[in-house]
Every structure is written in structure tokens, then in C-alpha cells.
Amino acid sequence: MAGSGLLWTECGALRDPALASLGLVSEIEIVRIGPDEWEEFRDVRLASLRDAPGAFGATYDDWVDAAEDRWRRRLVDVPLTVVARSSTRPVGVVSGADAGDRVELISMWVAPEQRGTGLAGRLIEEVVAWAASGDKPTFLMVRDDNEAAIRSYTRAGFTDLGVPDGWPTDAPRERRMRHDG
To answer: Which residues form the N-acetyltransferase domain (predicted)?
Structure first.
């Protein structure tokens, strides 16, 4: 995190030394969650869908009234979900879906007040490391007009493969990106 002024602690928390020196603690804990944390996942997923409705394949309306078993099933069906927690609420999320010979990074989101802090990079690293532990590359799709996300993925070591051939002309363009771990 050179130059950001933020430090990662050994437990995966993000500490801002400037705030700590004033007696204010700004820590972000990065934790892997499962079906028993479905309520926390629900909260952060709905926040992401409200904040960035065009960034995901699902919509807020698709999930807002979902029953507990649907939330739990999502956390079982997608084997890696990582949440970034502040002292008051979840402020980021990312998932990794096992696609056989590769891992798909999906559902990436960072709360607006945490953008630019390096948190996105830390979440991305969690999925890439998980994929690499299984000797798999990480792939993702990102909206062509989401320049900030493309920059974050590029900084994290992803290669932009461009818009896939045959992309539908009536759909928002998405770029394919790859990280070889």
C-alpha cells in the first residue's frame, strides 16, 4: 500500500495511522463468510445493488424480497464470498465462483466512502489468491464504461482481453479480464 498512508494489519484489517494518532480507529476487517452470515451478505449485497444498479447481472428488485434460504443458497453455490467490515457495517464484498478450469471474480463492490483507499485491491487479492491456491487463473467481466473498476483490476494485475467477439449489440458492453495468479 505504498503511498496510501494506510496499513494492513496481520489480521487483515486496514488501519489509517493518521486517524489512529488522533485516537480514532479506522479499521476494515476482511473476512470470508458462509451461509450462517447470510444477513450480513444480504445487507452488503443490497447496498451494492442500490449503489451501482448497472454494474451487476442482478438488480435490487431481484433480491430485496428474497427469503433467507435464497441468501443462504447463494453463499453455498458460490464457494468464496469475502466481506470488508468497518466497525459499524459491511463496506465491501467480492465473490469467487469456481468455473472448473478457472475462477470467476463476481459481485465486486466497495462502498463509496471507501473507494480510493486500496480496499478494492485487497478484496481482489482475496479472490486471486483463492484461485491461485487451486492453480487456476481468475477471470471477470466488467462494464466497458466502468473506468474506475477497470483501473482497479488493471492495478491488481489483470490483463484486459477486450469485449468478447459476438457481444450483443443491444446489451451494455462488457470487457473480459484475466489474472494468472
So the answer is: 28-181
Contact at 8 Å (CB) between 56 and 107?
A: yes
Among the four given CATH numbers 3.20.20.150, 3.40.630.30, 3.40.30.10, 3.30.457.10, the one describing domain 30-179: 3.40.630.30
Quick: pLDDT tens for 46-72: 999 999 998 998 999 999 999 999 999
- C-alpha angle 58-81-74 in degrees, rounded to nearest 5: 50
Rounded distance, CA 150 to CA 154, Å? Answer: 6
Rounded to whole angstroms, the Cα distance separating 154 from 119 reads 15
User: Cα–Cα distance between 16 and 51 in angstroms, integer?
Assistant: 25
pLDDT above 90 (res 19): no
Domain ranges of the chain: 30-179
Q: Strand 138-143 and strand 13-15: pairing?
A: unpaired
Residue 87's CB is within 10 A of a number of other CB atoms, namely 10
Give the number of other Cβ atoms within 10 Å of residue 101's Cβ: 9
